[in-house]
């Protein structure tokens, strides 16, 4: 038995394959917490990357100062969104609701309803109304869940980065342990590889978000929309979510556009969003991802389609990193190594 166990530990490819299966199984069991896990990883990666970037130019800058200043900026942005942007959005929604109610009470709406019920049965209308209510309920629930996950992720990433050196020292104790040392070495091996691939894709998505925001702000400026800076900030944040982020921004932009120029502006914004979405999905996303990961555009686009089908929005975020990670682990294609300072250890 000891001989078989020793052979297993010495067989590095088999050992790492088993460890990878264990990691996948653990993540599957923790799938209910996947929002928190992925958001914590993203926030931590960005902050650690920022720490090393600042310390490259200001070597004596303490890590704690950088982290505290960064999170104060994040809190200030959240305060701006809650106190300035949300009231503006609520005001636009109330105006839109009043307009809909006024239309509903008009004679024109009665003629439209009678015309619709002539061709559509009441049972079908009730079914569609139930589906719409269910969709709205699930949307509100998902937004609430994502909000809680985001705040928890910010708190976890703050505690990780504020004690970055202590976290590294404590984590290294597992690798130096006498028991299951090989397990923690393999976990560190996979962690470094995934961090490297995920960082490459995150940089690509950042450039895509900049392009989306620039195109959107140009269109909004032509339409003479109010609060272009605030709207641009919202589009940039949502654009960090691949493909789906641009579509999500359609809802608040349409509400504000309706209050400014009526249904005509809503149509303009819808067309503009669809054009930008097409540019992102068929040009920017495959091109930037392909250039950063050095994958052919066909494979990059195919991975995005398959990942979105199985994992939804998160598939668009982690699909390419996971595919590139597997290529690296299977020794099919290695990813360009980042410097040690840019990798979360």
Automatic annotation (TrEMBL):
Transmembrane domains' residue ranges: 36-54, 66-86, 143-162, 198-222, 228-253, 265-285, 297-330
Annotated family: Belongs to the autoinducer-2 exporter (AI-2E) (TC 2.A.86) family.
Keywords: Membrane, Transmembrane, Transmembrane helix
GO-annotated biological processes: transmembrane transport
Cleavable signal peptide: none
Entry membrane topology: Multi-pass membrane protein
Protein name, UniProt field: AI-2E family transporter
UniProt GO cellular component terms: membrane
InterPro entries referenced in this protein's UniProt entry, alphabetically: AI-2E-like (IPR002549)
Pfam families documented for this protein: AI-2E_transport (PF01594)
Localization per Swiss-Prot or TrEMBL: Membrane
């Amino acid at each position: 038995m000891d001989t078989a166990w020793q052979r297993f530990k010495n067989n590095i490819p088999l050992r790492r394959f088993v460890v990878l299966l264990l990691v996948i199984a653990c993540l599957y069991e923790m799938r209910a917490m996947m929002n928190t896990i992925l958001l914590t990883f993203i926030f931590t990666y960005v902050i650690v990357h920022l720490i090393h970037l600042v310390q490259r130019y200001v070597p004596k800058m303490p890590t704690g100062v950088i982290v505290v200043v960064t999170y104060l900026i994040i809190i200030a942005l959240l305060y701006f969104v809650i106190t300035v942007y949300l009231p503006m959005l609520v005001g636009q929604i109330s105006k839109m609701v009043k307009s809909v109610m006024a239309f509903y009470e008009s004679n024109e709406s009665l003629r439209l309803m009678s015309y619709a019920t002539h061709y559509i049965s009441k049972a079908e209308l009730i079914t569609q109304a139930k589906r719409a209510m269910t969709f709205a309920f699930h949307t509100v629930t998902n937004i609430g869940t994502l909000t809680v996950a985001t705040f928890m992720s910010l708190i976890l990433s703050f505690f990780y980065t504020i004690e970055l050196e202590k976290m590294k020292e404590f984590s290294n104790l597992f690798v130096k342990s006498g028991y299951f040392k090989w397990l923690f070495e393999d976990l560190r091996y996979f962690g470094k590889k995934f961090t490297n691939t995920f960082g490459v894709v995150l940089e690509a998505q950042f450039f895509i978000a900049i392009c989306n925001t620039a195109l959107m702000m140009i269109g909004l400026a032509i339409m003479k929309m109010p609060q272009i800076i605030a709207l641009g900030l919202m589009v940039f944040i949502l654009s960090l979510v691949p493909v789906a982020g641009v579509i999500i921004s359609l809802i608040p932009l349409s509400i504000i556009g309706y209050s400014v120029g009526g249904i005509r502006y809503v149509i303009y914004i819808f067309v503009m969003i669809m054009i930008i979405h097409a540019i992102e999905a068929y040009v920017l996303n495959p091109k930037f991802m392909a250039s950063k990961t050095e994958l052919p555009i066909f494979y990059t686009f195919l991975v995005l389609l398959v990942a979105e089908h199985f994992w939804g929005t998160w598939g668009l975020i982690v699909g390419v990193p996971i595919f590139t990670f597997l290529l690296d682990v299977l020794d099919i294609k290695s990813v360009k190594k980042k410097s040690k300072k840019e990798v979360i250890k």
